[in-house]
Design a protein that fits this description.
Length: 65
């Protein structure tokens, strides 16, 4: 695992936060909610793929399959 993934996740969080704040100040709360959901989905896809890689490495390590 590389530390750059953590920085990428943090960057997505910062960008989503800035966009949401700008949208809330311009009274676009519904779009701000959608932006935050899209950011969450993006981060979850990265994390889920990392967890899948972890499980495949554990299977190879213990020779389960």
């Amino acid at each position: 695992m590389d530390i750059s993934i953590i920085f990428k996740i943090a960057a997505v969080g910062i960008i989503v936060t800035i966009i949401c704040q700008v949208l809330k100040k311009s009274e676009r709360d519904d779009i701000a909610t959608l932006v935050s959901l899209v950011g969450l989905i993006m981060v979850l896809t990265v994390v889920i793929s990392m967890i899948a890689d972890l499980f495949s490495q554990i299977k190879e390590l213990f020779e389960l399959f």
